[in-house]
Write a structure and sequence with these properties.
Structural class: alpha+beta
Oligomer: single chain
Strand order of the largest sheet: 1-2-3-4-5-8-9-10-11
Number of strands: 11
Helix content: 10-25%
Number of helices: 6
Shape: globular
Largest sheet: 9 strands, mixed
Length: 294
């Protein structure tokens, strides 16, 4: 399905699945001034979606099974870079029903939802010393082979230093494991996840990979957890460096959502009712750390 809006383009992958109740949201929007416009695409009401930037593209990946929406990407067609990937996690979505996708011929496929003219001319990460950094991780999507395969699309990748992507001193590497632990906790109903690397002009390295691909200076994570008590949220902000001399606590990288919004320019969790959004996003960081056990 392709829908053309006056200020935004939305490319939506259709699913033949019937019941999408696992990952649907119907927040009370009566008092929600900054929510996304859902007149053309109802999925934009989902709680993991930040506010969509004018002129950008939203790629919504679905699977033809009971899970429905897999993850979504906001794509900047001018910079030819992803702004974020967003998705939901819970005990059901963390089921391990398949193995990590492997292909000798096409390990990182082109995203079928994105026109070729809106992507880079090549996979710029190969043979540069950087890793293909999944934003929605493969390990978060092992419930089906189709869902896992979709996480390897190039639109879900950012270039990352190897030590940032896969070293136990790296906060990014450790945080991905911690996120799954929070989502898998018995009390968790749903964990809403937004992740990405910075692409604004003052938050990227001066050189592009192969003259085309932006290299983020920072990476971020925004989390919103729903349980029987309500909602809580936390953000993480970390510098993209080639190595770490020590293993610092994840709490050292934690910020409240209001601060993460200031750093990134992204309006996270905009589909929450305004009173709930203000409460969870402006909580002082020491309170946030206590709430998350950091």
């Amino acid at each position: 399905m392709l829908a053309l809006l006056p200020v935004m383009l939305f490319f939506v992958a259709c699913s033949d699945s019937g019941d999408d109740s696992w990952n649907s949201d119907s927040p009370d929007s009566a008092n929600n001034a900054n929510r996304n416009d859902t007149s053309r695409e109802p999925a934009l009401q989902r709680l993991e979606f930040p506010h969509i930037k004018e002129g950008n593209i939203v790629l919504i990946h679905t699977t033809n099974d009971q899970y429905g929406i897999n993850y979504s990407v906001e794509w900047d067609p001018q910079k030819k870079a992803q702004r974020w990937s967003a998705y939901q996690l819970d005990t059901r979505s963390l089921e391990k029903n398949t193995s990590r996708y492997r292909s000798d011929n096409n390990q990182y496929p082109h995203d079928p939802l994105l026109q070729n003219s809106l992507y880079l001319s090549q996979d710029c990460i190969w043979n540069t010393g950087f890793e293909h950094g999944h934003i929605c991780p493969s390990a978060d999507r092992l419930y089906s082979a189709e869902a896992n395969y979709q996480t390897f699309f190039l639109t879900n990748m950012q270039p990352q230093y190897g030590a940032f992507n896969g070293n136990d001193k790296s906060p990014w590497f450790r945080l991905e494991t911690q996120v799954r632990s929070w989502a898998n906790a018995q009390a968790t109903e749903t964990l809403y996840v937004v992740k990405g690397g910075t692409i604004e002009d003052n938050q990227i390295f001066p050189n592009k990979l192969k003259g085309e691909m932006i290299i983020p200076k920072y990476f971020f994570v925004a989390l919103l957890l729903k349980n029987a008590q309500g909602y809580k949220a936390v953000g993480f902000w970390m510098e993209h460096v080639s190595g770490y001399s020590q293993k610092l606590p994840l709490g050292d990288y934690a910020v409240n959502i209001e601060e993460l919004q200031r750093l990134t320019g992204i309006d996270f969790f905009c589909n929450l009712p305004d009173d709930v959004e203000q409460r969870v996003e402006q909580l002082p960081i020491e309170n946030v750390k206590r709430a998350w056990g950091l």
